[in-house]
Write a structure and sequence with these properties.
Elements lengths: L1 H10 L1 H13 L5 H13 L5 H34 L7 H21 L7 H10 L4 H26 L3 H39 L1
């Protein structure tokens, strides 16, 4: 963690941009903590509010766009080749695609706030062939809301940010665990659906 803090303290806006881009793609970067730290530096007037907000937003946009691009190029192949090994045939995959076309854009909007989920939403959007225009509207709006929110938390908390960052992170981890549990239940029900229909 000290390494990341040191990079932001030394390189400022460039470090915020690069680290958030890598974190959103999926590398082990503590995104929310870094955003709160950057907000704290803005509170201390070591960073300016407008430039750090732009750097955080562009880093988030860059990371989510890379994930979407990977989903469009290799995601569909992985889904069709590996899906059957996990009981996900063509019918289930088409159901996922249809669901994502209708509701998945909202996952792009709020998925940033759930650790682990934001690393997957754009990849699934790409592999589901969600249109680039729809992706951009929801993913980039979510990037702005997420980055600005945690920058604001660090700025508002000021000197208290380091004491309260751990409880905030724990709450997000619990939320992520609940989200993945719900996803596991949904996948289980999707796998049972054809068998149930056949048996009926």
């Amino acid at each position: 963690m000290d390494l990341f803090f040191g990079l932001i303290a030394q390189y400022g806006y460039l470090a915020v941009f690069v680290l958030l881009m890598l974190g959103v793609v999926g590398l082990p970067v503590p995104d929310e903590t870094l955003l709160m730290f950057a907000g704290y530096l803005a509170f201390q007037q070591k960073l300016a509010v407008a430039p750090v907000t732009v750097a955080a937003f562009l880093g988030s946009v860059g990371g989510i766009s890379v994930s979407y691009g990977l989903g469009r190029t290799v995601g569909h192949y992985l889904a069709t080749s590996l899906g059957p090994r996990f009981g996900m045939g063509a019918e289930q995959l088409e159901t996922v695609r249809a669901w994502y076309a209708r509701w998945g854009k909202y996952a792009l909007l709020i998925g940033y706030f759930v650790p682990g989920v934001r690393h997957l939403t754009a990849f699934v959007a790409g592999s589901s062939r969600l249109s680039p225009a729809v992706f951009a509207v929801f993913a980039y709006t979510g990037a702005l809301l997420w980055s600005a929110s945690f920058l604001a938390v660090g700025y508002v908390l000021g000197e208290e940010w380091s004491r309260l960052s751990a409880p905030i992170h724990r709450a997000l981890v619990i939320l992520a665990a609940l989200g993945f549990a719900g996803l596991a239940v949904w996948v289980f029900l999707m796998r049972r659906k054809p068998a149930k229909a056949t048996g009926g």
